[in-house]
Specification:
The protein has 404 residues and is an alpha/beta fold. It has 17 helices and 14 strands. Helix 1 packs across helix 7 (168-191). The longest helix is centred in the middle third of the chain and has 24 residues, at 168-191.
């Protein structure tokens, strides 16, 4: 069987909630051994973000933490810190998402660790960055999306501020973190030199503002909420049908002509108000009314079928229950069952990557809190059963068997 791309790589994961766990899950999908360090008793905050839950843990956590081993260590104790340092000594990568300064106070900061481990890759994830006036502020995806502008361009014109349907900034931060780790590993492979990788939710948000940022920085225009519409391309939005809505778009003038033909109005192609995208943006409101008056006459399925046959962009606006019944989604084969000895079998969305030689692995279900404590301390650090039992009795670590 072909090795996974990151097989042999060991990651010690001190992160929690979304951004960090998402990044380490991606590394785990590619074959890295990910050891998740959690607090005894409660573990990762997202374990309790339910309902819905499966057994004692939320589905939120289950969807973000496959392919990991969990060890529960009390980092407020000297022995706990010593155990953490021993784990790091045998690792390639550390990922953490504490507030700036916390790992340093624990004696687990990069500058301390690099003295003994100069080839260590250390990825620090924060809300606002490791320094600056906001470094000590608590920050989650929602707060950062407000401060960084994403919320100001999300929602309907004139409506109240609206967040994205998933924690998009967290997810993008996780992607950036994983990318940074891989880039640092490539550098280390060439030079033997480790390094620190810093990524914040705020810096990620600024990076993914794309056209909204350039519209202001280069064009001097402040973006506003557009609902499903696009600020720079018309038409490119949801339109009403007799049984709901359908998404249609014309990213260029040729495709607008196709749309006009399909709607029964070929004359729109040569109308100077609509012939070019620039003109359509100027006459947006009038054109949208004309299109809506046609689309509302038929069902969403009618327009999806009619436009799909022409090559014009179109899509139904699916709810989650329709998404996973969609034939193309099913063809992608991106949902797989994982087995947990306590929670049973449940489906997860797998990696988006498709690799011809080293494909990502589905692997193991998300672990129970402290499920692998004994295994890691015995096999990884060489402690005896008696030593592990004493650490459990002293409250330094916690162990919960997978099926007990």
């Amino acid at each position: 069987m072909q090795k996974a791309a990151l097989q042999g790589l060991r990651v010690i994961d001190f992160s929690r909630v979304v951004a960090g766990p998402y990044s380490t899950m991606l590394l785990g999908d590619m074959g890295a051994e990910v050891i998740k360090v959690e607090r005894p008793g409660k573990g990762d905050d997202s374990r309790s973000w339910g309902p819905p839950s499966r057994g004692e843990v939320s589905t939120y956590f289950l969807g973000l933490n496959r392919n990991k081993k969990s060890i529960a260590i009390d980092l407020s104790t000297a022995r706990g810190i010593a155990l953490a340092r021993e784990l790091i000594a045998g690792a390639d990568v550390v990922v953490e998402s504490f507030r700036p300064g916390v790992m340093e106070r624990l004696g687990l900061g990069y500058e301390t660790l690099r003295e003994d481990h100069p080839n260590l890759i250390y990825c620090a994830i924060s809300a606002f960055g490791q320094d600056g006036p906001y470094k000590d502020r608590p920050g989650y995806d929602l707060m950062v999306s407000a401060l960084g502008g994403l919320m100001s361009i999300t929602g309907t014109p004139g409506g109240e501020p609206v967040k994205t349907g998933v924690a998009l900034i967290d997810v993008a931060t996780g992607l950036y973190a994983a990318l940074g780790v891989l880039a640092a590993l490539n550098h280390r492979n060439a030079t033997g030199q480790g390094q620190r990788v810093d990524i914040s939710l705020l810096s990620t948000e600024l990076a993914i503002l794309i056209n909204a940022a350039s519209q202001y920085l280069i064009g001097g225009s402040v973006a506003e909420p557009q609902g499903s519409a696009h600020a720079n391309v018309v038409p490119y939005q949801a339109f009403p049908t007799c049984d709901g809505h359908v998404l249609m778009g014309s990213p260029n003038d040729k495709l607008f002509g196709v749309l006009a033909e399909t709607l029964g109005h070929p004359e729109w192609r040569v109308d100077p108000r609509y012939a070019t995208n620039e003109a359509r943006v100027v006459h947006r409101d009038q054109l949208i009314q004309l299109i809506s008056a046609e689309t509302v006459r038929e069902t969403s399925a009618h327009w999806v079928d009619a436009l799909s046959r022409t090559g014009a962009p179109v899509a139904p606006i699916n709810r989650m229950d329709a998404v996973f019944k969609d034939p193309q989604v099913q063809h992608l084969d991106q949902v797989a069952e994982v087995q947990h000895p306590l929670y049973g079998s449940y489906p997860v969305v797998t990696s988006a990557l498709r690799m011809s030689v080293t494909p990502p692995v589905v692997g193991d279900a998300a672990p129970r809190l402290g499920q692998h404590t004994g295994e890691i301390l015995n096999g990884g650090l060489g402690l005896s059963d008696e030593q592990v039992a004493q650490l459990i009795a002293d409250g330094v670590v916690e162990y919960r068997p997978a099926s007990g």
